[in-house]
Design a protein that fits this description.
The complex is a heterodimer of chains A (49) and B (358).
Chain A (H helix, E strand, L loop, with lengths): L3 H45 L1
Chain B lengths: L2 H8 L6 E2 L2 E2 H21 L3 H11 L4 H25 L5 H28 L2 H26 L22 H8 L5 E4 L3 E4 H18 L4 H12 L3 H25 L5 H21 L5 H27 L4 H40 L1
Antiparallel strand pairs in B: 1-2, 3-4
Helix pairs in contact in B: 2-11, 2-13, 3-4, 3-13, 4-10, 4-11, 5-6, 5-8, 5-10, 6-12, 7-9, 8-9, 9-10, 12-13
Classes of the chains: A mainly alpha (49), B mainly alpha (358).
């Protein structure tokens, strides 16, 4: 039988790791947009300096 | 209370705080994350290897340092894997097979540690093995790269194209020649026996479990030198595997309250950007350069671990700090070299392309 305490700890742990995963995916998306907007400009700049 | 938390709390009444940390600490974590992200995206390793010792020296308890380090590695590996996936550098089939073999190997490695602990020999044997393994792989990879004659960058389409026979290491050619069914086709035009993949995965997992490390520094070269997949795919597939091992490890630590989001969130904010730079750089920088940097980083790590162990034996705590400086110094140098090489390669490419355009 699963104890209430361990179930609660598991849920808390899963929420914490879910938060890290969510942050990673959001950052991936946000930095992706930044890369799409500015990436080529930065690369061109680096090539020509 | 740990020193890092204490400093942030003391200054809290006067300075701005974010997640209970002073802005200076947040800035430090974001910068540190950026540095690690470049290395992680470029090599598929370097997370817990760098973060955990740094957090320990900053005064965080071991459980929090290891748990938060693992959670950070998990987040960064998700970002770096997504980026490598965009570049077509993740072999999911190979990654899943590696997870199966590695998991079994880790369990056997852990049992070996338990046995050695009962004999009272675990600490010294693990430390010596760690130093020789890091140093040995570092020296081997550096030597192979320095004597290599590859002169081009890495093709973005390398994942689909067949690997050049000259680029496949001799050991990998031998392993690929064992025709024990079922044979598995991998990205990069590589065909190898399922049992060989599971064997390599088991061996790397065994070392990983024995040494108590994530194992990226063992798995990435193993995928290239033993199985023969091209380096960018080895990095991408290694990262894919770390998503699972890091996720499970951080979940287990989170159950005991070992994951501190005030550490993970700013570190991840920096590493997410760094991982993009590092992952993109694998497609620009010469493959032999990648190996040289990887080898030098491991040699720096081996020296740092050796210094730390000498400090323990002779009870000289200062050597623990020297060890951290060595690790961070080599990480800073190598990530700087990655960025510098990428810029140089872009300019070189531009110069070569210019006459044709004119």
């Amino acid at each position: 039988m699963i104890e209430a305490g361990s179930l609660s700890a598991s849920i808390d742990g899963a929420i914490l790791i879910g938060a890290v995963l969510a942050e990673a995916i959001i950052l991936y998306g946000v930095y992706g947009v930044v890369e799409d907007v500015l990436g080529q400009r930065v690369v061109n700049r680096l090539r020509n300096t | 209370m740990c020193s890092a938390s204490a400093s942030s709390t003391d200054s809290g009444t006067h300075n701005m705080e974010l997640l209970g940390l002073s802005m200076a600490m947040v800035g430090l974590f974001v910068g540190f994350g950026l540095l690690i992200g470049v290395l992680f995206g470029f090599f598929g390793m370097g997370g817990s290897f760098l973060v955990t010792p740094a957090l320990l020296v900053m005064g965080y308890p071991t459980r929090v340092a290891v748990g938060s380090g693992l959670a950070f590695v998990f987040g960064t590996s998700v970002i770096a894997t997504l980026k490598h996936r965009d570049l077509g550098q993740v072999d999911y089939k190979l990654g899943l097979l590696m997870i199966v073999g590695t998991t079994a190997g880790i369990e056997v490695g852990k049992q070996t540690v338990v046995y050695l602990e009962a004999l009272g020999l675990a600490g010294s044997i693990i430390s010596v093995t760690y130093v020789f393994l890091l140093g040995g792989i570092g020296a081997f990879v550096t030597y192979e790269a320095v004597k290599g004659d590859s002169d081009g960058g890495i093709d973005h389409d390398a994942a689909e194209a067949a690997a050049d026979a000259d680029d496949i290491p001799d050991i990998a050619k031998t392993i690929q020649s064992y025709n024990v069914p079922p044979m598995i086709s991998l990205r990069g035009g590589v065909t190898v026996s399922l049992w060989m993949i599971l064997g390599v995965a088991f061996a790397t997992g065994l070392l990983s479990g024995f040494l108590g490390v994530g194992g990226g520094f063992i798995r990435m070269p193993a995928l290239f030198y033993l199985i023969g997949v091209p380096v960018p795919i080895a990095v991408g597939t290694d990262l894919f595997e770390i998503v699972f091992s890091g996720g499970l490890g951080s979940f287990l630590y989170a159950l005991d309250g070992g994951v501190d989001l005030s550490i993970v969130v700013p570190l991840l904010a920096g590493s997410a950007f760094g991982a993009r730079i590092g992952s993109a750089a694998t497609s620009i920088v010469n493959e032999d350069d990648i190996k040289v940097y990887f080898g030098l980083m491991l040699l720096g790590g081996a020296l740092a671990v050796a210094v730390r162990e000498i400090g323990k034996v002779y009870e000289m705590p200062i050597l623990n700090r020297v060890s951290l400086v060595l690790i961070l110094g080599s990480a800073l140098l190598v990530s700087g070299a990655v960025v510098y090489s990428s810029i140089t390669a872009l300019r070189e490419e531009s110069r070569t392309a210019s006459p044709a355009v004119e």
